[in-house]
Amino acid sequence: MWPRRTVAATLDIQMEFNAMEAAQVNRLKSRLAANQASYVFAVRSVWHPGIVGIAKASGYDGLYIDFQHSPISLEAAAGIFQAAGFAGLTALARLPSLDLSLIGRAMDAGAHGLMLADVRNAAQAKDFVAAALLAPAGERSFGMPIDTRFASAKETPSMSAINKATLLIAMVETVEGIERVGEIAATPGIDAVQIGSADLTASLGLPGEFGHPKVQAAYQQVAAACQFNHKPFIIAGIRKTEDLLPYVAMGAARCYFTGSDSGFLLEGAHAGKARAMAADDSVQRRPRERS
């Protein structure tokens, strides 16, 4: 006979199952909600689904297709979205503007969520949500998305299930966006606010000065707005630990956008060449040392 379980034990098992199920459907959204450490990078140069294997092998929780800063095609992105679904990672798309056509096509191609650049007010945030989510939360046309996360479903997933599995991030990158971040964070359907640090510092007239008091004050404003609205805020564009620490201490989500595939390739190329140069230098010195 099977051992009898208490009600509490059964509930614990069910909660654990629900957590596993949520992580499988959108790993990054689940980890953000639980404030668990998560790691994401941008895809700009590697247009092959194999980039998902690299992300998985290196312990990342997600990646995003950067439609804002790369010429990547939607066709190439679709393969990456679908591979990420099978790998259990979250694949987002970063959009340069509120392009209703691109939003719908990216979601139908299998994106697990969207990041919208340069959101400046509640009206833009509301339009973003309306374009990205299905009824009743939004107005996006239901085209039966090519989404591998629902591949094993016995029936067509409900619109509500698809909305719950979608992560929407509003990027705040200007002085105007900071001034109205409270209304942006309060917008239903926005799951998180992300600060685009490079563009924000430029908007403040302080490009790259991440430790400047004005920049810190802007971050404090975002932190307060997100805390009030129970939304996580994410840091982007800051790589050095010493620059990052003050903002993590403000309560930023433990969600780290670590760079891009282009940057990793460049760093790896420099490191590989440096090792080869060191070896060559060692070989060139040996005859002189013997003589």
How is the topology of this model organized?
Blueprint: H1 7-25, H2 27-33, E1 38-43, H3 50-57, E2 62-66, H4 74-87, E3 90-95, H5 100-108, E4 113-116, H6 122-132, H7 159-164, E5 167-172, H8 175-179, H9 181-185, E6 192-196, H10 197-203, H11 213-228, E7 233-236, H12 241-249, E8 255-260, H13 261-290
Parallel strand pairs: 1-2, 1-8, 2-3, 3-4, 4-5, 5-6, 6-7
Helix pairs in contact: 1-2, 3-4
Explain this structure:
- With 291 residues, the protein is of the alpha/beta class.
- The protein has a single domain, classed as Phosphoenolpyruvate-binding domains (TIM Barrel, Alpha-Beta Barrel), CATH 3.20.20.
- It has helices at residues 7-25, 27-33, 50-57, 74-87, 100-108, 122-132, 159-164, 175-179, 181-185, 197-203, 213-228, 241-249, 261-290; strands spanning 38-43, 62-66, 90-95, 113-116, 167-172, 192-196, 233-236, 255-260.
- The chain has an eight-stranded parallel beta sheet with strand order 7-6-5-4-3-2-1-8.
- The radius of gyration is 22 Å and the shape is globular.
- The protein starts with 6 loop residues before the first helix and ends with a helix.
- Mean pLDDT is 88; it is low at 1-23.
